[in-house]
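Schema walk-through. Below, the input block comes first and the output block second. Nothing else is stored per chain. Lengths vary across the set, and this one has 147 residues.
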Amino acid sequence: MNSTRLLPVDKVIHRASMYRNACGFDAFVRESTSQIVLRTGTVGAIELPSELGHRVIAALTWPGPVIVHTDTPHPVVTILTGPVPNHLRHGVNFAALTAAGAVLLPDGDEVVLPSPRDPARRWLPHEPLDPYRPTAEVVVTTISDCW
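--- output ---
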């Protein structure tokens, strides 16, 4: 019986491929660090302080992909959304998000996704298996309601 064993790098490449194929993420592996990276644009990303993030996640009917980062002095969560419309990046919405400590990542920014070699990032409550993401508008409204 011949069993195939995946090397650590193979596991990272396999996971990045799964993110692209099953979730529709524009993900790639950064060779220098073996990190799986998502460039924002077709996928939006909102970073929140961990405490507020957990309240928002609990308030959303279906939060979609959420990343917990534990490698910072103040843990944060990143909620992946559909594309972020420009009107959310300005005015009242932007001011409310800023006051709550939330950040709408600009298009083209990079989000490091959880990978087999990165214990500091994990999916909450579990790894996404499909392309579902809540709209940015729903998440921003929920942040305002929870703050």
